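User: When convenient, might I ask for sequence and structure tokens for a protein?

AI:
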Amino acid sequence: MHRLQAEKVGKRFGSRILFRKMSFEALPGTTTAITGSNGSGKSTLIRILAGVMKPTKGSVSLDICGKLVDDAQRPMHIGLVAPYLNVYEAFTPRENLKFIARARRMSDYASRIEQVLRDVNLLSRIDDPVATFYSGMKPRVRFATAFFTDPAVLLFDEPTANLDVKGIETVRNLIKGAVERNRIVIIATNDPEEADACDDLVCVEDYL
């Protein structure tokens, strides 16, 4: 059983406090919504949970099958999708995923690349440079990179922002599939409907 836990987490930038003493846990096969007004710290919290930013106080721990993951290794077990994360636009989707596979020392990844790109409806553009994609297609490459290694935890920062109807449907299907595979899913969102669809809710502004 996996568990991602925040224990009395706080974050401040100078004199500005975003949140303090935030504690919650997320379990496999569940979805947790992170809500709050713009600028309240949702994206900051996502980065802290992902292990790419340190909290000012408190701690985040990831437990996989009863084994505590070292903080330095936590990003290797997490798939992150956010508007501020970029892929290599000069590369094709296949090349972007090959880069990840080689960095992670994966083997026999060719079929996995095709499967993930099929899931995000990009298989027909597998060998086209990402720079040639229209704006609504580029976020799908980010989703492909997050799902490629089938991580234990998936973190989404405004996952359906700037997507068309088909893109939103694709994202919701991906999240549904992740939950069915007992992955931990956490979504930072301003969309009330998206938040209401989650199993649990954490409002950043409750921890000021």
Summary: The mean pLDDT is 95.
